[in-house]
Amino acid sequence: MSSVVSTKCWLTEILNKMEGLNLKKYSVANTTREEREERAAMAQAINSLGAEPVAPEDEVLFQRHIDGELEIEEVTQMLINKYKKTP
User: Contact 78/6 with Cβ under 8 angstroms?
Assistant: First the structure.
């Protein structure tokens, strides 16, 4: 249980740092599907080094970005909203 809690705390810290970043260079208009697939694969590889597996509903968001349905800012905000601690 504590590893899940620590992983969520770590993820929350990362997502908080991402809030407000300019991610326009990663927008659907500025990237190819292949670039988005490569970034998603890289993120999953990094995640596999010690974090909890990516939740299935989060994988759906990543796939929607790869498919060009969601901008990376939308995905990021959805994940921030999902994992952010409430006071």
Answer: no
